[in-house]
Amino acid sequence: MTVSAGFYKKMQDWIINEHTGNVAYRPFQSNGNPYRAKIFLVGSNPEPIPQIELEDIKMFADSLVDIQLFEILSGQLTREQKGWLNFSVWMKEQLNQEVAFTYVNCYQAEELQQLKQLKKDKDPLYVKGTEIFEEVLNEFLPDVIILNGTSALKMFRENFERVLIDTNSSKETLQQIEEGGIFATLPLREGKNVKVLACRNMMYFGKEGASFGHLKKIISEIYGNYFV
Prior knowledge:
Layout lengths: L4 H11 L12 E2 L7 E7 L13 H7 L3 H8 L4 H17 L2 E6 L8 H9 L3 H17 L3 E5 L1 H11 L13 H7 L3 E4 L5 E7 L13 H14 L2
Helix pairs in contact: 2-3
């Protein structure tokens, strides 16, 4: 799959550092049309891939909707990405739902410590990385987001706790939240309210997610109650 000319124009604002012209952000990943995904897994921040040349930016954009192309560009998939794909297969087979992946901050930092320093410095790269996450959610308007791991949960709380609705788990651990189900609602544009879940990092999902029984049960219940 490739992205259309119109969508590519939007994606350029989401992936390019306007000062250098280089790829600096990874706004989302899907294995097909992201507008069909009603569930978004949310990591903390994306790891950088080898330098993308300016003439290859369109290919990078295409790779964000084509996981095989992304694997060619990046050299290999991370355990987290493999877990996301396996979870996506389960969702499609069991609930006929598409899944996409995004990040609380979409800047491709070398490591989480670098991202923390950028946040401390209020660096424009960090600020835009957070803005892109919000723009992605408002563009695709998912029904559910699942925070993927402790770092993602912590960053999400720090950035969005002030706007969350019906949240009552500020002192709960990740395990407690994973087992408890929906722990908050995030308001988006057009009156859209997104259900917020959290779980362990998808790198632990494995092939069939045998240890993710709580998450699969909760998602199945949400599907039965809320999805058409």
